Amino acid sequence: MARSVRPQTKIAFTVLAWLVGLILFFPILWAILTSFKTESEAIASPPVVLPSVWTLENYFDVQARSDYFKHFFNSVLISVGSTLIGLFIGVPAAWSMAFSPTKRTKDILMWMLSTKMMPAVGVVVPIYLLFRDWQLLDTVHGLTFVLTMINLPIIIWMLYTYFREIPVDILEAARMDGAELWKEIVYVLVPMAIPGIASTLLLNVILAWNEAFWTINLTAAQAAPLTAFISSFSSPQGLFWAKLSAASTLAIAPILLLGWFSQKQLVRGLTFGAVK
Amino acid sequence: MGSITLDHVNKAFGDVQVIPDISLDIKDGEFVVFVGPSGCGKSTLLRLIAGLEDTTGGTIKLDGADMTNAPPAKRGLAMVFQSYALYPHMSVRDNIAFPLKMANTPKDVIAQKVDYAARTLNLNDYLDRRPRALSGGQRQRVAIGRAIVREPKAFLFDEPLSNLDAALRVNMRLEITELHQQLKTTMIYVTHDQVEAMTMADRIVVLNAGKVEQFGTPLELYRKPANRFVAGFIGSPKMNFIDGQDAARYDAHSIGVRPEHFQLSRESGTFTGKVAVAEQLGADTFLHVNVERLGLITVRTGGDETFENGETVHLTPDPQRIYRFSADGTALSHGQA
């Protein structure tokens, strides 16, 4: 039986939900508005909500100072590249854990998750030195490698949870039908797990896109993605709020759009394993 | 060809011995049913033959070749699962064609064979549908179609009819039997339903706790059960067992009489009791008679006679058809040859 909710309670919760939503969205909204203001309006006190004159000057300045599209393509290469490599490794790994578990499978899964609990700054020196010696500093493939390693546990965990929902009978039927291991994965498992694989892909592209610690510490000019592009605007000469806002808006716009259009898949991805 | 030989096959999951030691010889073209109560190891045994589980010991031979360690794909067997296990993302046509595609069969041959299987199983109108748009019976036909096109050495059926309703089950039972007569390929069929076993099998393997209790034709099992377990398991309604002094009269630890082997009389008989429940099925009536000392005894009688609940009746077992058992349950020589 459905629980009965009083109309007043319903209205109160709706208002509260909108309020929380607005508070969360406010910084992004403020940054977008500021990016259209002049520098003096941006730091005005009391603050000006809407720009008196809407200007695109900040965007032109940002593009003139450093090439936005170069950083944008670096971000795309690194986030999509690391996610695809992660999936390529993660699908077989999750397959073996979901369908052929051993006594130690749970321990391995926990161990992989535990690497996410370690603060990144704890390993920055060894990784920096390795990168220096292997000449991977400021290279797109070096960053792709690091981000693959960082997001692999999440990829495997998500895929593992999706794969567990697939009846093992169907994979066994494929085996009986003469499918070798890789054919079983390519023709049967992957098509059945497409929704799960899609949300894993989306979530990990977003995580890799937003990753700021390694991308800023291991790059300089050549391989710098958008995260490094934004941070380059907080300079010792002082903060240029309007330009910084324009850079931020440019950096978050692609991922915001991606998130908007794939909301359904993402919600499924973020609540994976929550039901059933 | 499709002979299957199991030689001292055993299987343990950790410390649990599911199948202690089984040896079986299944002839080419035979329809063999594995029957037994749930948890007796019949499905495990089938999965060992399929290669979906690894044996702990013993050898499995197909047509004389040792296949104990061969992967399922290399054994040349086809399996029909209880859950149908159709590929949900493929059409019926692609489901049936899948094994052929895996074997790199040319496209025109695939089309030909799928068409043949679809005609045999009346699936022509559904070839472009997805499995979720089919009824249970149609899904089971697709699963069978997928098995047929491979032209396997043997078919393995794992309780394929348990998800269907009673009427459809009878139909599918007939269809599978006809299919066997048509293809003449070895079939191994797992079920817990002894009626399915009796009606379909050339020979039945009765399993209990991972052991073969008896391997024989349906009528052998019915007429000459090797022990009390088989006697109780084969036959519907179940055989009545009588222990104690009434069994001792027949020089046995216990005796068994099938419900159809009692003579029923309103005047006199060996045992006297009162009708507790009369189940009228039309052609037959099953009487559950409360007999003093023995408890509830089931008797099968013609559908034309009617009995009131509480009515006193007299039962006389057919002396030629009394089964005698020793203390450990082994059958002693009995009347019926």
Can you describe this structure in just a few lines?
The complex is a heterodimer of chains A (276) and B (337). With 276 residues, chain A is mainly α. Helices cover 71% and strands 1% of the residues of chain A.
Task: Describe the structure using short key phrases.
heterodimer, A: 276 residues, mainly alpha, MetI-like fold, 2 domains, two-stranded antiparallel sheet, 14 helices, 2 strands, 71% helix, 1% strand, B: 337 residues, alpha+beta, Rossmann fold, OB fold (Dihydrolipoamide Acetyltransferase, E2P), six-stranded mixed sheet, five-stranded antiparallel sheet, 9 helices, 32% strand, globular, transmembrane (chain A), MetI-like_sf (chain A), membrane (chain A)
Topology summary:
The complex is a heterodimer of chains A (276) and B (337).
Chain A: H1 7-34, H2 39-42, H3 57-65, H4 68-99, H5 105-115, H6 124-133, H7 140-163, H8 168-176, H9 181-192, H10 194-210, H11 213-217, H12 226-231, E1 234-235, E2 238-239, H13 241-261, H14 263-270
Helix pairs in contact in A: 1-13, 3-13, 4-7, 4-10, 5-7, 7-10, 8-9, 10-14
Chain B: E1 4-13, E2 16-26, E3 31-35, H1 42-50, E4 57-62, E5 65-66, E6 77-80, H2 92-102, H3 107-120, H4 136-148, E7 154-158, H5 166-183, E8 186-191, H6 194-200, E9 203-208, E10 211-216, H7 218-223, H8 228-233, E11 240-243, H9 245-248, E12 254-257, E13 262-265, E14 271-280, E15 284-291, E16 295-302, E17 312-317, E18 323-325
Parallel strand pairs in B: 3-8, 3-9, 6-7, 7-8
Antiparallel strand pairs in B: 1-2, 1-4, 4-5, 9-10, 11-12, 12-18, 13-17, 14-15, 14-17, 15-16
Helix pairs in contact in B: 2-3, 2-4, 3-4
